[in-house]
Each structure stands twice: as structure tokens, then as C-alpha cells.
Amino acid sequence: MNLPKSQAEGIANVLTEALPYIRAFHGRTLVVKYGGAAMRDEALKHKFARDLALMKLVGMNPVVVHGGGPQIGAVMDKLGIPTRFVDGMRVTDTATLDVVEMVLGGRVNQEIVALLNHQGGRAVGLTGKDGQLIRARKLKLTRPGAELAAPEIINIGHVGEVEAIDARVLNTLIQAGFIPVIAPIGTGTGGESYNINADLVAARVAEALQAEKLILLTNTAGILDAEGATLPKLSVQQAEQLIAAGTVTSGMLPKVRCALAALAGGVGSVQIIDGTEPHALLLEIFTNAGIGTQITAAGTETA
Length: 303
Known about the structure:
The chain is α/β, with parallel strands linked by helices. The protein has a single domain, classed as Carbamate kinase. Helices cover 40% and strands 22% of the residues. The chain has 9 helices and 16 strands. The chain has helices spanning 5-25, 42-57, 69-79, 94-118, 168-175, 198-209, 236-244, 252-264, 280-286; strands at residues 29-34, 61-66, 85-86, 89-90, 123-127, 134-138, 141-143, 152-154, 160-165, 179-183, 185-187, 193-195, 213-218, 233-235, 269-274, 293-296. Helix 3 crosses helix 4 (94-118) and helix 6 (198-209) runs parallel beside helix 8. The radius of gyration is 20 Å and the shape is globular. The termini are far apart.
């Protein structure tokens, strides 16, 4: 049965629009931070896996770094382990770290790998412990003390920050045609494990791989201006001005800071997009309009 002419023309236009982007990103590395609602909705999970598999099949090199905060919280509730946050970071004692490693390094990581493999993506799951991928150190969280007093040091347990990324294992997998899927767990110099924010890991991985693009999936449409409208494009300077003005706040603030750090480290561009949009990755990569907010090192005019 032949397609109606209008439908056929629509499909042809989509493919034609995608062609220059397939050409531009062929052989290039794109790091995707996967988390939020996109990881909890079954339909979105399958669409995400198909998007990644398609990217790989047309010659791109996607690398996934995933979170899993809600999944960790659900398991902790079942086990009766209390959850506590300080400045948005999960306080990670020994019992909590056991859950983090079990959920992130096991259940969540392997679910993503299975979904990608089912779509033909040839994925391999990793934590930062594999091949000494993520060398970490304990995160030192401080708060200003009283006048003339030293800053207060807050112990939030086994929470770390990235000290270094050894990209050799990732490059080996990429060159062999695999999609690396990374759980954000790092290792200290003494072999101790650290729970690390997935946005931070994604930014450092993108920097280590000199990725063409870092894509951060969020639960919002992108970076918003003071009136609540999405800003399609920003330069580094413009993003810094939004931070200084207090326009970028709350959960978006650390994401924008990660984006700026990645750009400073040589990443081509950073895209902050709404992961609840079906096929968000394809809309961003393969269409002229794109979605979300793109931040680049070079000066750009906001549209």
C-alpha cells in the first residue's frame, strides 16, 4: 500500500533535514547525561534507547552517563534507611553507599544497557571503578562561619568529586563500536568508593573525550529568561550574566555551571533539553530548530 503523497513528502523532508547533521556528527563523540523523568517513564525509556541506537547506526559515537536518584530513594525507603540531603546532595553513609552501588552500578545501569542492546545499540555498562575510569576524592562541603570564625566543614559521607577521568577504556569501547553506559561512582586513592553527581561526571567525561557535544537531559524546557521563556542559544558570557543576575537558580544552576566547565575544557557545545519530550535527542540533533538551550564558547545572539 502506497503512502499518501503528503505523508511521503513529510517523511522525505524529515530525512533531508537530518542529512547535514548526520554528516556533521559522523565519527564525533556526543556525551548524553540521562536522568530525571525520562528514566522513569516506560515509553520515554524505549524512545531514548531507540534514539541512541539510531545515533550509533548512522556513525555517531554516543556515550551515556546516567543518574538514578529516585530509584535509590525508592530502595532506601523499602529498606527503612533514612534519606537526608544537604544543599541538594544526598548524605551518603556506608549503608547508603551500598544502596547507591547496588542501584546505580547494578539495576539502573544494566536496565539501560539491556534497552540499548534490544534496539541494536551494542552497549556496555561501566562504573567509574572499571579500568580506573573515574578517580575521585571526597567532596568538602563548607558553609560560612560566624564573623571572624573559620568556615564550617560539613561531612556528607561518601560523596565525591571527580579528580581525573582516564578515558582509555572509553576510547577502546568506542573504537570497537560499543556505546559506553557509565554509572557515576568513582574510586579514591585508597580504593574507597564515592557517589558523584551525574552532571559533574558527564561534564568531565565530555571534556576527557573532547566531545563535540554534551547533552544534559532535564525535566524542563531549557534555560529560562526572567519572563519564563526558553532561551534557545547562549554564549558563555551570556550564561554567566544570567547566573550573576539570579535568573539561573535552583536545580538549573549546577547544570549551567557544569556546562560552562565542559566548554572551558574544550567541549564543542552543550545542550540542555527536556528529556520528557518524546525523541528529544533526535529533535535536538537532527532538526534545524533543535530544542532546549544551546551554550557555546563563541558569542551567539539569543533568539
